[in-house]
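Structure representation:
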Amino acid sequence: MKNIISIFVAFFFVCSATAQTYTTHVYSSKDGVDLEFDFYPAENPEATLIFVHGGGFYSGTRKEENIMHFCDSLAQAGINAVNISYRLHLVGQSFHCDQPLKNKIRAIEVAAEDILSAADYLLQNAEVLQVDPLKIVLMGSSAGAEAALYAKYDLESSAFSALISCAGAATDINKITKSSAIPTLMFHGTCDALVPYDQGIHHYCPSNSVGAMYLFGAYSIYQKMVDLGVSVELVTACGGKHGSAVTPLEKDIPLILEFIRRANSKGHFTIHEIRDTGRTCTLPDGGVCND
């Protein structure tokens, strides 16, 4: 019996030692809802990263295990991680071709507004949370990446030092200019049927559908930033689908950390890593995977 108790106690302490440690903050209250984020503190943080989950603006949660593990891993590596919830404007609906375009844009805008509120909270509490106001990185997955790009460019925020997009896209590439652009890392699959890798209509909806929303994916953004002379890194999965929204959180933490440190160094870089998935695809990829 003593042996069993000893094993249980040892197991408890091992689990406690490896458990994710964070504090939860209400960063804003909107539409009668308290908006929260989980703050994963790093010791002597090099930077702070805000993470925005996906889910098509009608679903998704910051409490996904892979997101929580990702944030914990960043904190252990010296980066404060801020895992936010935001208003899901289309909850109970969808983000497909039958959703009117104006509703889609408003859903992105609402999420982007909440991102900026979270950033404001960090800036207001920078000393207590050990947040360097000049080193706040914004990262989003899928819908979260679209909201992140919208927050930075359409809402013209100057709160962020760098941006990471996982299978995201911009609604207006003309908003990305020499003066507004910041170092950016993007992950995207060329066979993403939801968010175009190069450019095209979201979900590849018919052009005459009420929900036809033209987007500029990672490759278009990469080309624009190269032309502008802005630091940019693109990881292309040839034949990859929408998995680039998730896999970087699980498999590319070292690359993400390297990007953050490279962006902090202020040196210029242009990187395009092409990964072969072994799958073929007929969706437009700008000729990247045919070279």
About this structure: Residues 1-18 have pLDDT under 50 and may be disordered. Residues 8 and 14 are 10 Å apart (CA to CA). The longest helix spans residues 101-124. The longest strand covers residues 23-30.
